[in-house]
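FYI - complex with flavin mononucleotide, inputs then prediction.
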Amino acid sequence: MENPANTDLPIHELLRRRYSPRAFAPRAVDEGALTLLFEAARWAASCMNEQPWRFIVATQEEPEAHARLASCLVEGNRRWASAAPVLVLGLGVETFARNGKANPHTWHDLGLALGNLSLQATALGLAVHMMAGVERERAREVYAIPEGVSVITAIAIGYPGDPALLPEDLEARERAPRVRRPLDEVVFGERFGEPRSRR
Ligand SMILES: Cc1cc2nc3c(=O)[nH]c(=O)nc-3n(C[C@H](O)[C@H](O)[C@H](O)COP(=O)(O)O)c2cc1C
């Protein structure tokens, strides 16, 4: 299914077409496409070029590995994300490699890397659905993730599927209009909360 944003202004086609589906087609993502997604993530900007993002990846070609990663999702996400051909955990190194000090930008930079990954995915006809709903302690145990590395998000990746095949409640959410706050609520000028005047 296509689910383009109904934008107020003509943003780039890739941004307009990106969305987070719950329905995935039963079609594998080939290794070349998958590697391209991580290459896109690799070229994101990051504070001091630390590249604090790390990823754990499982595909449906290896059902045990896929089930293992799915077992780290909260139930509400597992029910639809288990059908995604690729599951990823997004991790972040919490300290700067150069001096061991805390890196408060890790979360920001993982987000940027995943932004790149999402747009590359859209360009390939794929879709990405990020998830905060992760069983973090379980993921840490299952994958032996060390202290100092945060389990931040999970990501479902695949070709968008048919929402009619989802359970009814999820189908309704999939078909709901995509909405956003107006720019005046988030872009300020003179003071916080005061819309920036556009000349
Ligand atoms: C950091 C982050 C965490 C999210 N967590 C979840 C989640 O746990 N479960 C879920 O169904 N969607 C999750 N989402 C998807 C958002 O709900 C979705 O991006 C938002 O509703 C906007 O929809 P769109 O991506 O289709 O434009 C998450 C998105 C982000 C960026």
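Residues 21 and 129 are 6 Å apart (CA to CA). The pocket of flavin mononucleotide is lined by residues 19-20, 77, 130-133, 153, 178 (CB under 6 Å).
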